Amino acid sequence: MSQTELSLGAHCGITFAGIKAGSLVNIKRECMGCLKRYVRHFTRRGFKFVVLKAGERMLLYVYNRAQLNKILSNSQVREFLRGQGYEYDTAGQAVAILKGRMRGESFPHEIGVFLDYPLEDVLGFIANNAEGAKFTGYWKVYADEEKKRGLFARYDRCTSRILSRMTGGCSLENIFNSPLGEGAAY
After folding, report:
1. Consecutive 10-residue averages of pLDDT for the chain (186 residues)
2. Between 145-167 and 3-16, two packed helices, what is the crossing angle to 10 degrees?
3. Sequence-separated (6 or more) residues with CB below 8 Å from residue 136
4. Is residue 38 one of the residues assigned to a domain?
5. Tens digit of each residue's pLDDT (9 = 90 or more) over 10-44
6. What residue spans of the chain are helical by DSSP H?
7. How far apart are CA 68 and CA 95, in angstroms?
8. Is residue 60 within 8 Å of residue 21, measured between CB atoms?
9. Which of 16, 22, 82, 91: disulfide with 63, CB 3.0–4.6 Å?
10. Is residue 181 situated within a structural domain?
């Protein structure tokens, strides 16, 4: 198993499993060629791979097109993103705007929406300058702490199962080889 495959499993497995719309992973520039087989496999299952930032390491955004389209079509999310300068008809257009903003001077905190963070927590993070969170897990939580703790535990269980299967010799493609492209058991 390559380091690239392990990184994808560890950082994007919850997205491939269908329980989170998008994930980020850093990949060494020289490993980008290794990604081709995973891109082919997961693209057929409705996932998209986008390099958001390039350097010695590449910041790769992996997302489920259908799930992200659903998030971005939510009227509250659309209104929030419009206020951040996003005018889009499709998820692909919104991701292209995000990619452009990643090259800017300041970090685009609205990225949380693209990573399937609840809007209430994205807004809380921005309004509080990243201070005063109830707790921090996969993101800083500002509302509905109990529900988020349960969700984070689910993410942890899923990631643990994926990594256990990978270290046991199962490839990432075989783990997610169901017709729906999702790990229903997770």
Report:
1. 92 97 94 87 94 92 97 98 96 97 91 98 96 96 97 97 95 78 46
2. 140
3. none
4. yes
5. 999 999 999 999 999 999 988 878 898 899 999 99
6. 3-16, 36-43, 65-73, 75-83, 91-102, 111-114, 119-127, 145-167, 172-175
7. 10
8. no
9. 22
10. no
Task: Tell me which residue of 96, 23, 9 sits closest to 64, measured CA to CA.
Answer: 23
25, 56 contact by CB (below 8 A): no
Q: What's the confidence (pLDDT) of residue 106?
A: 86
Please state at what angle helix 65-73 crosses helix 91-102, rounded to 10 degrees: 90
134's tokens: 């109830």
Q: Could you tell me the residue range of the domain that residue 61 belongs to?
A: 3-170
Which letter does DSSP use for residue 40 in this model? H
For residue 178, what pLDDT is reported?
53
The dihedral over CA atoms of 168, 171, 172, 178, expressed in degrees to the nearest 10, equals -100
Sign of CA dihedral 122, 9, 66, 180: negative
Q: Which residues, including other chains, have CB under 8 Å from residue 120's CB and lie 6 or more apart?
A: 142, 143, 144
3-state secondary structure at position 142: coil
How many separate domains does the chain show?
1
Beta bridge partners, 24, equal 61
Cα 58 from chain centre: 15
Whether 80 maps to a domain, the answer reads yes
